[in-house]
Structures are given as structure tokens and as C-alpha cells.
Design brief:
- This protein is 85% helix and 0% strand.
- The protein has 89 residues and is an all-alpha fold.
- Helix 1 packs antiparallel against helix 3 and helix 1 packs antiparallel against helix 4.
Length: 89
């Protein structure tokens, strides 16, 4: 009984940490993409636009690009594992 509850706890902890790290990864990419327009070379090549417009363009491009690089099969396996873990609770 104790071993089974420990296994359930570890599985839940795994799911929570997996989601937390995925969220932090997305936040890190958005932050990096919003810092790109601050480079002087980018400012020189986008001289007709304001800093806010260039920043929003890079963030919008990043938001559109993230789903392209996501591996669908990995997500299917991950969410199937999550459903199994949550069903054990």
C-alpha cells in the first residue's frame, strides 16, 4: 500500500514538473524573442517601425512558430500518461 501511494505521488510530481518546465520553456522563448528587437542591427534594419511594432512582430512570429516545432506524437504520449496518472488518484 505504501509503495503504491509512493508510486502515485511520484507520477503526480512528474506530471506537475513536466508541465512547469514546458511553461517555463515557452516563457523563456517569448522573452528571448522580445529582446531581439533591442539589438542595434535589428533597429537599423527596421528604421521605419517603432520599437513596440518590431517587438510585437517578433513575439507574434514566435507564437506562430512554437506549434510548428512541437512534436505531436510526444504530446499524445505525454497527455495519455497524464490521463493515466490522474485516473489513479
Amino acid at each position: 500500500m505504501v509503495l503504491q501511494s509512493y508510486h502515485t505521488f511520484c507520477s503526480i510530481l512528474y506530471v506537475v514538473l513536466q508541465v512547469a518546465f514546458e511553461v517555463m520553456g515557452v516563457i523563456a522563448v517569448i522573452t528571448n524573442c522580445s529582446l531581439v528587437p533591442l539589438l542595434s542591427s535589428v533597429k537599423q534594419s527596421t528604421h521605419g517601425y517603432s520599437d513596440i511594432q518590431v517587438t510585437l512582430f517578433f513575439v507574434a512570429t514566435e507564437v506562430c512558430a512554437v506549434p510548428i516545432y512541437t512534436v505531436p506524437q510526444k504530446n499524445v504520449q505525454y497527455y495519455a500518461h497524464s490521463k493515466q496518472v490522474l485516473a489513479c488518484i
